[in-house]
Design brief:
With 233 residues, the chain is an alpha+beta fold. The protein contains three helices and 13 strands. α1 runs parallel beside α2.
Length: 233
């Protein structure tokens, strides 16, 4: 019987691939690289799929996820391994995997423990990567005509998304168009959907271009992401 693989939201665009098990012990991953993992300890974790459905995880489940960095002050800090690594952790429900560096003392359940079985590769043997950097438009401030209001906080859970959502609602009530753009954080659809539910015409984040989170991404990448969203709007 063919093993059913639970595919994470960040890997939704991955269609065909081959599994290279030899690379698991010899290849150093980069942000966005796609791996196939076995759940060693679920720790009550869940995985968001491409349809926005939270899939419960259990021991021995096989999942497809992508390596990435995450710095969430109220939850977890973790990074892409700097050497070939078999044992790693699920850093975010959107499918971000890495090596945990620290946990907030209030976290009840530790992240799911994973075993890297191998990397998803293309027909030429190259490791598949979720990041679509070549699709990004190059930043050019003179080409951006939309008015932008920044919602910035000192940490997570400081009210950034709530503020943005109610700004969208107020703008819509006064006859304006409003779009929500999430530039930082981790790959997870909740914030964008909340803002759309509150009235935004569109909600989008960095996962649209395959970024697990853009944490540690170069400044130029962030500017290009912003440019691309402004054009798509």
């Amino acid at each position: 019987m063919k093993t059913k693989i639970k595919k994470a939201q960040i890997c939704a665009a991955i269609e065909s691939y081959e599994l290279n098990v030899e690379l698991a012990s010899s290849y150093t991953p980069k942000m966005g690289d796609v791996g196939i993992f076995r759940v060693v300890m679920a720790n009550s974790a869940a995985l968001m799929d491409g349809n926005g459905v939270a899939r419960h995880l259990f021991e021995e489940d096989i999942i497809m996820a992508a390596f990435g960095n995450r710095y969430a002050t109220s939850q977890i800090e973790g990074y892409v391994p700097v050497a070939p690594t078999i044992n790693c952790q699920l850093l975010g429900r959107g499918g971000v995997v890495g090596a945990v560096k620290s946990l907030n003392a209030t976290v009840r359940n530790p992240p799911a423990e994973l075993e890297l079985l191998g990397y998803a590769v293309d027909a030429q043997g190259w490791v598949l990567n979720t990041i679509k950097a070549k699709q990004l438009a190059k930043f050019h401030p003179n080409k951006i005509k939309s008015k932008v209001i920044l919602s910035i906080g000192t940490s997570m859970d400081s009210g950034k998304t709530t503020t943005a959502a109610y700004l969208c609602a107020g703008l819509k009530k006064t006859g304006h168009s409003a779009a929500y753009i999430k530039l930082t954080g981790t790959a997870f659809p909740k914030d964008a959907r909340f803002c759309v539910d509150r009235g935004a015409d569109m909600g989008i984040d960095f996962a649209h271009f395959g970024f697990p989170p853009p944490f540690f991404a170069r400044e130029q990448i962030l500017l290009d992401l912003y440019q691309s969203w402004s054009i798509s709007r």
